[in-house]
Specification:
There is one protein chain. The protein has about 625 residues and is of the alpha+beta class. The chain is about 35% helix and about 20% strand. The longest helix is centred in the middle third of the chain and has 22 residues. The radius of gyration is 26 Å and the shape is globular.
């Protein structure tokens, strides 16, 4: 279960009648360019900052233009049920090919890609469903032994990929306009309506409608944009918009008042991108009368990535988030410009040079369109400390002006979060643009990963994270297994954060109390150090009094005397600890995490019913970076 926070949400007061009136009164204006805007496409061709994306579009389009449409087969669809893997259903390859073809056609304006574009659109219309096999619910009427079967609109499933396909096709027909054969445009709109829009209004039981995770924004945002482009009836458009807007209030409810999401940066990029696109589309189409940018929490959510960034494009890999990613340029540009977040806008404008991709037409189009502004040269330093009380995230930096300095992140929360890992109390120690102690990030998204065996995966179980192991027990899954923030303090020389994580463990672990304390110490030389202290008290009837610290890293770990050394590519860390019991290091060969992982176990000294373990992490640069 995910918390839902009660934010101020002005769109809750909107009515379908009011939206319909605004749609009729306003010009049909959208925040994306069309093929007809020749001056825009000429400026894209001449923009050195977009050269990489332009060249990639030309190259891929030329490569695939004469190839037949990549087929989607029933046996490929069944492969997911049979093997639990997604690789045999190449819908993503088709998306990338279509994206490059459309983008290149807008750039070249010679018509040579119109036939392959038409073939891809026609073939997508012929698909029995746009739902991908990993999202076809076995509990739904549409499912029949691994394949989709014909159903009524009220029984048709809408999920991430089917909603996204509707949006993508609607935008392609809008951008290309009368460059497409009129029968093709008509059929595409018909299939969007039949497969997505009619079911959206007919079915009130989509699981994501009242959810607060990324599926809500992706599905609702996609449907809203598709409806604005693919149907002409303003009353029907307004009914869809009103339903999407009401539902997306639940999505915003998953963020804390300070903008933090327990889903992490990866799903911030995914879900909030679709919220942002929908907001820009609706605001443009209604001439500003209806704005999803109006809720105050939207600005806090927009500012979230820069507050948790550890170093350039490195973020805490909590839950199913990856550490290394970018802040999608068009999202940063739009949100920064629209909400007055200058640093975010500047980041988007800078990253469009290197991070833009033609793999998604929607993204490529907006990267090009929303980055047309100039920014100053000054980039502000991140805050010394960021605390997100609702989700219990804490990020602290030894020297914010040092872009490669020591940064630490820790989380509390609970073990029933979206994309949950049993990881309450985990932390990241990041230095010289690499994490010396870290979370493994997401595991492999196969069929078992989201099933009953989720917590058998190294990436999701608590033994895959830097959290205590108590009397042979790991943390348990469920929102009842959570932390309480005990203490937060900020001083010139130190930053402190403390959690009570007692309730994260099953009763069988025999805990009366378990407190975890973090301290970033700036006095320990110019680079700083991190101290992590665990204090446990065991119940009288506890099966034992074994408290073991666990440390996880992507970098090799070795013992040198009485110290643990973590050796990264640009730095290392010396880990000292106050126990003389036998520590151990193992290299975990687990394919699901996408690479090698090292894990150290540090048993605390036995002191009767009370035990404690103090670990001090001191980083230093390697080679020419050494100070």
């Amino acid at each position: 279960m995910t918390e839902s926070y009660d934010h101020e949400y002005p769109p809750a007061e909107w009515s379908a009648d009011g939206i319909a009136a605004a749609l009729r009164e306003a010009d049909e204006t959208y925040p994306i360019p069309t093929y007809a805007d020749e001056a825009f496409w000429r400026s894209v061709r001449e923009d050195d900052d977009l050269r990489g994306m332009v060249d990639a579009a030309h190259e891929r389009a030329a490569e695939v233009a004469d190839d037949p449409v990549v087929p989607l087969t029933a046996s490929g669809y069944l492969h997911y049920k049979r093997e639990g893997a997604r690789a045999e259903y190449p819908a993503d390859l088709r998306r990338k090919n279509l994206s490059a073809l459309v983008f290149a056609e807008c750039l070249e304006r010679e018509g040579r890609y119109l036939d392959p574009i038409t073939d891809y659109l026609w073939d997508m219309c012929n698909q029995p469903t746009w739902t991908q096999p990993q999202h076809l619910s076995e509990d739904g009427a549409e499912y029949r032994e691994g394949l989709p079967r014909p159903v009524s609109p009220a029984d048709r499933q809408i999920e991430l990929r089917s909603a996204g396909a509707a949006k993508r096709l609607a935008e392609v027909t809008y951008v290309l306009g009368d460059r497409l054969h009129p029968a093709v445009r008509e059929r595409v709109h018909h299939e969007i309506d039949r497969k997505v829009l009619t079911p959206y209004l007919a079915n009130g039981d989509f699981s994501w409608l009242d959810s607060s995770h990324n599926h809500n924004a992706v599905c609702n945002g996609s449907v809203l944009i598709a409806a604005l482009h693919a149907i002409e009836d303003a009353d029907r458009q307004a009914r869809i918009v009103a339903r999407a807007v009401e539902s997306m209030g639940h999505y915003l409810g998953g963020f804390g008042a300070d903008g933090c999401t327990p889903e992490g940066i990866h799903y911030w990029k995914y879900g909030f991108a679709f919220y942002t696109m929908a907001a820009a589309h609706l605001e443009g189409r209604t001439d500003g009368a209806y704005s999803l940018f109006s809720p105050p929490v939207v600005r806090e959510i927009a500012d979230f990535p820069l507050r948790i960034e550890l170093s350039r494009n490195r973020f805490p890999p909590f839950s199913d988030a990856s550490e290394e990613t970018d802040i999608t340029p068009y999202i940063a540009c739009k949100l920064g410009q629209r909400l007055g977040l200058d640093a975010l806008a500047a980041r988007g404008r800078e990253d469009v040079k290197t991070q833009s991709s033609v793999g998604y037409f929607s993204s490529a189009l907006r990267d090009a369109a929303w980055s047309r502004f100039e920014v100053g040269d000054d980039a502000p330093s991140p805050p010394r400390r960021s605390l997100f009380r609702d989700q219990q995230w804490w990020v602290a930096r030894a020297e914010p002006e040092d872009a490669e300095g020591l940064a630490v992140a820790a989380k509390g929360g609970h073990n029933g979060e979206p994309h949950n890992h049993n990881d309450v109390g985990t932390f990241v120690c990041h230095y010289r643009r690499e994490s010396l102690l870290t979370d493994p990030g997401p595991g492999e998204y196969d069929s078992g990963y989201f099933g009953d065996g989720r917590y058998s995966y190294f990436a999701t179980r608590s033994l895959g994270h830097s959290v205590p192991f108590v009397n042979g027990y790991e943390q348990s899954a469920g929102d009842e297994f959570g932390a309480t923030v005990c203490d937060v303090a900020s001083h010139d020389d130190t930053e402190q954060f403390a959690l009570d994580i007692t309730d994260c463990y099953p009763a069988e672990a025999g805990l009366d109390a378990l407190r975890r304390e973090f301290e970033l110490d700036r006095t320990a030389g110019s680079d700083g150090r991190l101290r992590v202290t665990d204090r446990a008290r065991f119940a009288p009837d506890a099966p034992d009094t074994d408290l073991t610290g666990v440390l996880v890293s992507r970098a090799p770990m070795t013992f040198e005397g009485d110290r643990l050394v973590v050796t990264g590519e640009r730095s290392n860390a010396t880990v000292s600890f106050d126990t003389d019991l036998s520590p151990a290091v193992e290299r975990v060969d687990d394919h699901s995490t996408g690479g090698d992982v090292w894990r150290a176990r540090l048993p605390a000294a036995d002191a009767g019913r009370e035990a404690s373990l103090e670990v001090t992490v001191t980083p230093e640069p390697l080679g020419p970076n050494r100070r």
